[in-house]
Amino acid sequence: MSVTIARPRSLRGEIIAPGDKSVSHRAIMFNALSNTGTATVTNFSPGADCTSTVEIMRALGVEITREPGKNGMGDSLTVKGVGLNGLTEPIDILDAGNSGTTTRLMSGILAGRDMLAILTGDDSLKSRPMGRVVAPLTNMGAVITGRADNTLAPLVFHGGSLHGSTYTMPVASAQLKSCLLLAGLRANGTTTLNQSTESRDHTERMFSAMGVNLQKVGLSLVLEPSELETVDVEIPGDISSAAFWMVAGVCHPDAELLIRNVGINPTRAGIITALKMMGADLTLVDEREVAGEPVADILVKTSQLRGIELAGDIIPLLIDEIPVIAVAAAIAEGETIIRDAEELRVKESDRIHASITWMNGAGIEAVGTPDGMIVSGGNSIGGGHFQSYDDHRLAMSLGVAGLVSTEPITILDPDVAGISYPNFWKSIENLGGLVG
Ligand code: S3P
Fold first, then answer.
1. Residue 89's pLDDT band (boundaries 50, 70, 90)?
2. Dihedral pair phi/psi, residue 279, rounded to 5°
3. Is residue 281 flagged as an active site residue?
4. In contact, 306 and 278? CB cutoff 8 Å
5. Nearest alpha carbon, ligand 1 atom 16
6. pLDDT in tens, 45-55
7. 345: CA distance to ligand 1 center in Å?
8. CA of residue 320 to ligand 1 center, whole Å
9. Domains of the chain
10. Would you say the CB of residue 320 lies under 6 angstroms from ligand 1?
11. Nearest residue by C-alpha to atom 15 in ligand 1
């Protein structure tokens, strides 16, 4: 299967961002562990990743219902909490599909339980580093084995007994942070996480709303074992999905796009900062708060972009958006340099290699570095046939490239977009960009 995208004469319209993937996973997992009743989760992410989380929680004995949402919103779910210790032994292997978030957060949930559980996923997932969660969970008393000396899935959880620990995070990873906080809920004693950089804080926000005893001291997190109270969650729109339209809008020569209902949590909003640094005409409209998360509509218009340097603390705040920032970098005047982003090498694909490969194929001067890339801007983007590397964000970044390129771009295996954004190609069609 493939799709071909060509630049429409103008790019105008309104788009509703689908429910946030990170918040959706957490709303299901945390409410499943609550002991105070049934929670309602609305505008749930339509992506396959979050469905993997729902199916795994069901396999662990949690009752979850799912109904289509109203007025263009995502599905509505109910989750009946079983309490921190109420999960039951699964009768089969748990399949996280393509989802790193499911695997790493579930590892914190499954660690140190009086049951056997095996967690696996697709080929991409089985190649992603899991030692980063296995090692600290083992230190906390969990017994976990896995392939390649306990660093790769399938991971096998054999039980153990958890005690709190003080841990210095070796990477700025919200998945690792959340995994250890989840384990800490059931551990004996205090869990302290020292971080050198901020990463997305949805877990901290939801834990606070659910009554968890979690303090932030500077960048360190201090958690006492706590029960969770059920909380209803209206999921904000996903800024990582909105990012595709932001970049398309600022790069297209005749564009005005209004993206509705976008979560703008500061620990996720690095894309807004980066595009503004590049000179983007981007306005936040109707800023409001939804379920403890800041939300706005975002208006983007055709802009004259310039190259920038992205490095350091901003990287974790836009890590998932770098493949589409590369599209903006190709169009911008001057060089864009991205550093400190070596985590891109271990995402759903090696996103540095994949981005450089397609950009070079489309006539853009760009080189990969061990921890980022250097893109010579001011290029128009040419056409061609490109692989999606089985990576949803790569496929959709190529779709954006097609909306702003001089020649059509054909994307192979586009269905992978369904991992986070099943309606993405339909929205491109509605904007007049789908030609085959
Ligand atoms: C996520 C955290 C990020 C991000 C991923 C979702 C989360 O991963 O890339 O898409 O929901 O916690 P890391 O925390 O491993 O960087």
1. very high
2. 95, 20
3. no
4. yes
5. 173
6. 999 999 999 99
7. 13
8. 8
9. 2-18+236-430 (3.65.10.10), 21-234 (3.65.10.10)
10. yes
11. 173
